[in-house]
Amino acid sequence: MTNGSAGAEAGQIRVILADDHTLVRGGIRRILEGQPGIEVVAEASDGTRALECLDAIAADLLVLDLKMPGADGIDVLRAAKAAHPALKVIVLTMHAGREYVARALQHGADGYLLKDSAVQDLVAAVRAVAAGGTYFSPAIQEEMLGLLREGPKAAPVPLTDREREVLRLLASGLSSKEVGAALNISPRTAETHRANLMHKLGVKSVAVLIQVAIREGILDPPGSR
């Protein structure tokens, strides 16, 4: 496949890779471009270059390391989401600490993978996140559960029965389109419910909706079954 807009096919998932290790980027590129429907359109070796690529090249998804020269990965995540609201971001890092996870979720990460699970999980994560879902390594799910246990309890938020249904499905990893099909409503209506939920619950990403769903008892915690 070729980089850039030339040759990009309709329906392609256009990905930018941001990691300061050339070998890591090369490995990620080989994994992704070995799959149909995924195209790596640019690579960046530091945070500043990653933001420049996002401004210059149309992309659907950013695979982002947290520790790079130049702009810090969290700063890149924050700036990328502010400048490109439709952009999906998967954090791919060696850092599984709770502080890293909390900051990434706070600033809108749609997925969080550890590098030691990239070979097994990366393609599935890219496809899930590009479709409007979320994807987290099992170890990260455990950290998310820990964050819930440690966090302050918010006052209960009144939700309609339909909003609870939508929240349960979104937290299970379904996209708005899939939620609409499951509930026999239009994708636009499902998207409206999602926007209303995020407003009511004061969150900015579907990833945090998962945390709220666990806290509210709508979704079982990871490993509870």
Chain-wise SSE layout:
Elements: E1 13-18, H1 22-33, E2 38-44, H2 47-56, E3 61-64, H3 73-83, E4 88-93, H4 98-106, E5 111-114, H5 118-130, E6 135-136, H6 138-150, H7 161-171, H8 176-183, H9 187-201, H10 206-215
Parallel strand pairs: 1-2, 1-3, 3-4, 4-5, 5-6
Helix pairs in contact: 2-3, 6-10, 7-9, 7-10, 8-9
Q: Could you list some keywords that capture this structure?
A:
single chain, 225 residues, alpha/beta, Rossmann fold, Arc Repressor Mutant, subunit A, six-stranded parallel β-sheet, globular
Q: Major sheet, described briefly? A: 6 strands, parallel
Poorly predicted tracts of residues:
1-8
Q: Which superfamily, in CATH terms, is the homologous superfamily of the largest domain? A: Response regulator
CATH architecture of the largest domain: 3-Layer(aba) Sandwich
Number of domains: 2
Q: Give the CA-based shape.
A: globular
Structural class: alpha/beta
Q: What are the secondary-structure elements, in order, as H or E?
A: EHEHEHEHEHEHHHHH
Radius of gyration: 17 Å
- Taking all residues together, what is the mean pLDDT? 81
What is the percent of helical residues?
A: 40-55%
Distance, first to last CA: 42 Å
Helical stretch count? 10
How would you explain this protein's 3D organization?
The chain is globular. Residues 1-8 have low confidence and may be disordered. It has helices at residues 22-33, 47-56, 73-83, 98-106, 118-130, 138-150, 161-171, 176-183, 187-201, 206-215, and strands at residues 13-18, 38-44, 61-64, 88-93, 111-114, 135-136. The chain has a 6-stranded parallel beta sheet, sandwiched between helices. It folds into 2 domains: 13-147, Rossmann fold; 152-215, Arc Repressor Mutant, subunit A. Helices cover 50% and strands 13% of the residues. The chain contains 10 helices and 6 strands. The longest helix is centred in the last third of the chain and has 15 residues, at 187-201.
